[in-house]
Structure to design on (206 residues):
């Protein structure tokens, strides 16, 4: 069975760059001649679906105030289906689905199921500079805490987005933070996005 890399892009705060990260991942792996299937489970915006070249599959996992477990189960079933022969699955989630999605993933043991089916699981989380720093650090803490007990735990990739301000709090950088100190063994990479000025990136929150 061909091993898939399953990328969940998550953060509880909106407008910090989840769709941008999902798009960059899709473009990067495609540039390496690897096959990619992108999924949009953002019940509010579904911005990734605007890019027709990605041929994004949409799953409405949040309908109103309810989490649509069947839609998510269908998504996971597709990920482990041997007939779906692609290298990377990239799942762009929304802020509105952050809590119910993670809660259901833990209850249904989604990550262990994917691992048992030869999937390599990565969770990408954005830490945003400026006023969003505490909210996004708390989001990262929530994710890292939830999945640390899983063995083997999914790999965490942290993206530092300095669009509005440097990613630091009271002069403390991310790698000096308490969150990084607590979970650095589970963090496989820290990616710093370059800070752009006066550039229009359309629907992206760079």
């Amino acid at each position: 069975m061909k091993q898939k890399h399953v990328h969940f892009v998550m953060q509880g705060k909106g407008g910090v760059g989840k769709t941008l990260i999902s798009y960059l991942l899709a473009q990067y792996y495609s540039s390496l001649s690897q096959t990619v299937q992108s999924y949009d489970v953002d019940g509010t915006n579904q911005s990734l679906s605007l890019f027709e070249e990605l041929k994004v599959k949409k799953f409405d996992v949040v309908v109103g105030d309810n989490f649509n477990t069947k839609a998510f189960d269908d998504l996971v079933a597709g990920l482990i289906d041997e007939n779906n022969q692609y290298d990377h699955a990239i799942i762009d989630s929304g802020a509105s689905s952050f809590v119910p999605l993670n809660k259901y993933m833990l209850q249904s043991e989604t990550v262990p199921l994917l691992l048992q089916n030869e999937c390599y699981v990565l969770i990408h989380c954005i830490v945003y500079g400026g006023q969003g720093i505490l909210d996004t650090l708390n989001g990262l803490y929530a994710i890292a805490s939830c999945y640390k007990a899983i063995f083997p735990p999914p790999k965490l990739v942290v993206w530092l987005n300095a669009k509005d301000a440097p990613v630091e709090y009271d002069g403390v950088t991310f790698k000096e933070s308490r969150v990084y100190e607590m979970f650095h063994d589970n963090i496989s990479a820290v990616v710093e996005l370059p800070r752009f000025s006066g550039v229009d990136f359309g629907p992206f929150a760079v």
